[in-house]
Structures are given as C-alpha cells and as structure tokens.
Amino acid sequence: MTRTPACQFLITLLLATAFCGGGCKGKKASPTGEPPPEPPAAPISALEVKAVTADLSVPDPAAPYWKDVARGQVALLAQPMVTPRPEATTTEQLIVAAVHNTTHIAFRLSWADTEASEAGRLGEFSDAAAIQFPVGDMNKTPPMMGGPELPVHIFHWRAQYQRDAEQGKPEMTALYPNMSVDMYPMEFKEAPGGSPQEREGFSPGVAEGNPQSYQKAGVDEIIAEGFSTSAVQAGHSSAAKAVWHGGRWTLVITRPLTIEGGSTLAVGQETGVAFAVWQGGKAEVGSRKSVLMSWLPTRVL
Amino acid sequence: MPKVNNWHLGREIEYPYDDHRPAKQWAIVFDLNKCIACQTCTLACKTTWTSGKGQEYMFWNNVETKPWGGYPLAWDLRILEKLGRQEWGAKGEYLGKTLIEAAPANERVLHFAPTDEDWMYPNIGEDDCGGGNVDGGGHMAELPHDKWFFYLPRTCAHCTYPACLAACPRKAIYKREEDGIVLIDQSRCKGYGECVRACPYKKSMYNPYTRVSEKCIGCYPAVEQGLQPQCVVNCIGKIRVMGFISPPGKSRRDNPIDYLVHEKGLALPYYPQLGLEPNIYYIPPIHADRDYLLQMFGPKVDDAIAAYQALPDDPRANGLLCLIGSTERIIHRFDVKGGVAVGFDDKGAELVRVPVTEKVIERAAFDARLGAIRNNTP
Fold first, then answer.
1. What is the pLDDT of residues A37-71, one digit of tens each?
2. DSSP B295
3. End-to-end Cα distance, chain B
4. Which of A199, A214, A229 lies at the terminal end of a domain, its last residue?
5. pTM, 2 dp
C-alpha cells in the first residue's frame, strides 16, 4: 500500500493517543464553592458603585452583599483594532456589578463559557478576564490599552494564575504525568554549594526574571501605554477569585481604591472601566479576546 | 503594509515592518549530499541549550528524513497545503502569495498551530523511502530499489523577514543589528504562542515550564566571539558552515557563504515561496526526486545540482569545501592558491590552511623496522 502523508499522520496520531493515555487531556479548572445564581441583567451605560460594610480585601463571588447590588449587562465585541484578532465574538455579554467599602473596590464579572479551560501544555490556553482603568483622564485615554503617555492600569485574572495561587506552579510531572525524563543536569545543583539560581540558569524565562515563569498570585497588575506595551508590575495590592459552574464563570477582582503609581478611584468621583474576556477553550490569548469598546463611566458613591 | 525586497523571490513582498537589513546576516550552508543523520548536531545543541525543564522534547536543531519525516509532524505539508498551489514565473520570479500576503484579514500570517502530540516524534519517518510504488508489503523488501530519501538538518533560519517577529503582538521578538540573529526576549514573552503558530518552519517552541516560547539563538554567545554555532562545529560529516551572507548586490567572491550561494548558485534557501527569506541554505541532494526538490528549493534547483555535479573541475570551490569543518572559527574570507585553501577571520588573520587534495602515502604491508604487519584496523 502506498503510504500517503494523511495516512502517516493518522498512524502517528494513533500512536500519540496510545502513548499519552489519560494524561494528555487538558487540565480543567475545578469549581470551588457554591455557584452564585446569575439571572439576566438589563443593559447599562454607566455603573454605580455603592458602599457596603464588609471586608473587600478578600474576593468572594458568593458573598451575601452581592445579592443587594444592582447588576448590569455590557456588550463585548471581538477585539477589532489589531491583528491577530478573533474571527468572531466569543463572549458577547458580561454581567457587571461593583461595591466598595471606602478603602477597597470589588468588581464582580459573570460570563458564559461552556468549558473551563486552564493553560498548561502547548496549545492549551486559559480562560481569563481583565478590568482596565485609566491612570489619568478617562476622556483622553484610549480605552484600547491606552496610548503613549496615556497609561492604563489593568487587572488580569487567568484561571491558570488562580491555579498557581491555590496549588502552586505546576511541575512538568504534573503537566505530563506519563513523560519519561532521564535527568535534568542542573538539578544536581541542589547538592551542597548549589543555588536556586544555578538550577534555573538554563530555564531562560526564570533566569531572566520573566513574571510569567514564576508562581502567580491569581491576578496580574499591568500598566500599558498602547498595544504591545503591557508590562506586569511588581507587587500585588489586588486579589481575584473565580468560580466556574454550569457553563458560567463568576469572577471577583478586588483592589484598593488608591494604588500609588497606578489608577485611583475616589468616593464621589467618576472614572471609567473597561473589560476584556478570553475563552481559552477557543484558543483565545493575547490580542485574541472580546472587549468592551469604550469606557464604562463608573461613579463611586 | 510596507513593501520589502525579498531577493529569494525576485520581487517586493508585504511585511508589517519597514525594510531594514542588519549590518551582517548570520547564515548556514548545509551540503545535503553529505548528511548522514547522525544527529551529532542535534545533541550538540541539546546538551548546550535545552537540557532544562520544559525543554524535554525541544530540539532547536533537528535532522529529519525527507519526504516522510517532520518535526513537528508534517510541518511542511501542512503549511504548503494551507498556502495552496502557487506558481513561479519563467525567469525564476515568484508569482504566488507569501504567508503574510495570504494571511486572512484577522491574522498577521497564514499559519497552522501544531499540537502537543505533533512534537512528540522528532525522528518519525527516519529512513523511510519515498517515490515509486511501494505496494506489496514492506517497502524495503526489494533491494536495491529506486526509491529515494534524504536527510534534512534544520535550525532556525534567522529569516530576514521572520514570521515569528511579524506575528508577536507583544513585540517580544527582535532581530539583532550586528548579526541578524532573531531572538525571543525571554523577559518579555508571555507565551501567547503566536510565534509557534506563525513560524512555518516551526522553529519557535513553547516551554510549558517557563510558560514562554523559546527558539534557536544561533549560538550568539559563540558568534560574538568569532566562533561558529555548536551544531556546525560538532558536525562530524563537515557538511555545514556558518558565516555571514550578503544581499546579492553586495556579494563578495571571497566570502564563503556568498561564494556558495551567490557566486556558484550551489546552495538554495528552503521553501523560499513562504516569503520569509530564510538564511539557512542547502546544497540540494542530487539523487532525490526532482519535483520534490523543486517544491522545496524553488526553480533554481536544477542549476544548483548541475553546479554541484561540475565541482570536480572547480579547484576554488573544492578548496572552499575542504575548509568547511576545518576550523571552529567563523571564516570571513577565503582564498585558494597552489592547491592550498586558506581561511581568514574578519581582521584578515589566517585561521586555517588545508590542502585541497591530501597527499596519498602508500606504505608497504610489512613494517620491516618493527617486524609487524600493518593493517587498517586500530
């Protein structure tokens, strides 16, 4: 029989399936806690943030105060400004609510996603969402990642980062349980006299101090001044917690009202927020995302 | 979109950034007639650069058997299939679309995304023959046979117009001015995998431990010291040489790479039709299927093979081929005179001197002085 490329490809895929066993399935984020109910909400063109008496430094999607807070729906579109961009909008609606307690502000986002996805192996991308604030004047700052000298302050949650925060950064043995490795030469640096820096010297991302290569705390704080400029900031004043249940993510990102060197919200004042959502199961990452096309005016009452 | 000049294709192409050639351009020439797939290059690279976590299946240099092999699986077939049939003109100019010109409106580069499993079989298809009709059981049943295969060693091509660089939305990939080496900034990459999708040669690879992408770095720490990359200096078959290639108008006859590529037309870029101006060049294997070679190396392949077959009559080219593998330093200039080939560094200092034809010394089978029989086995 003449072997065709397609035939060879099929054989290899079968081999791959046989060798991988169950370990090749993508890691799924598991739901934690009780799922909050999410009835439909009316569209909004502005957001009012009422005060509550509660500790908002810890994000809690199921906290009782969310029951008394007005929720609104905003429409997202496939990011249209830069390539690569999604072919179609994957997250069309985002339900938004927010509360503050004069020191912290918490945003609760809820969106439909038929599968919970978490990055790990090649080709696996994480579900994610981000909230963006202008550092300066909302009316001058472009809502798409800001612009030169018009920075935006972004809080970027990923299911992958939440897993890091809850279970630690996964080792290769967790990502590829059936993989066979003879040895890692640099592991011998664990011997007396060796240092962690030496062990990680041949893991370039780690050695270069790339935040992506270190354990995440659930949410990244990012400053950007336009497309291609986002930079993760050191230190964490924010926190995030999300629950996936029944085809829906519910995420709370909480942050201090005032963040030195970043965006500041104040009681009685109005600013803007914008949102982005990534569906990892549909290979959304980076600029492949659904976004709110303009600032949502937000008044802290 | 800006237009840039791609001399592989004999025309301007679209590229997201302005035309700018580096001061020097890193390049490797491989003689595919000599490669035996010993994988010494692969292991030299592996032990130097990719022995860490998340790099277990990562081979910045690999050697695959053509037509069946591919790392990752069927990388070439899949991108060619996506691009579809394209045409070359009668004068060797490319009439078709490049990957950037053929990109859908929402993408920067026409691409495919390899899956994890695609990278798991780096040596698949090794020594499998192509061509002819092999029905009737095992394809090795009839020997000698007229089937063909050849070995294709591959590194990153440090393209003049890299698809990885074009595709990165974070601008985390850059091309060095001093040597044209293309690098992924390991402190800035966020692991989106756009370069892994976009590179048609699939030489950007994802590290799931560091969660960023990595690729061949052209052994830049060695190159900065005037040394050739590990895969080159460890090649036991001496089939490859690294140096700097000039654009055609600035070709120097005493530059080894220019001589092989421009002056003799011996070495050709692979899959030039993809439009990236890759800077690894191959002397095509003379025995392989010509249609296949035409697809891989473009319309100049017949001339390249004819030039190769005429080499015995060319003392200068013979001299240069003798220099390949004779020094680990980068040869910037060479000369062949009086049956001796000499290589020089960038300052004109002599690096190496080799005879074009080694002396043949015949010795009697019996060594009378030692009273011993001489043989060829140590």
1. 688 899 999 999 999 999 999 999 999 999 999 99
2. H
3. 64
4. A214
5. 0.90
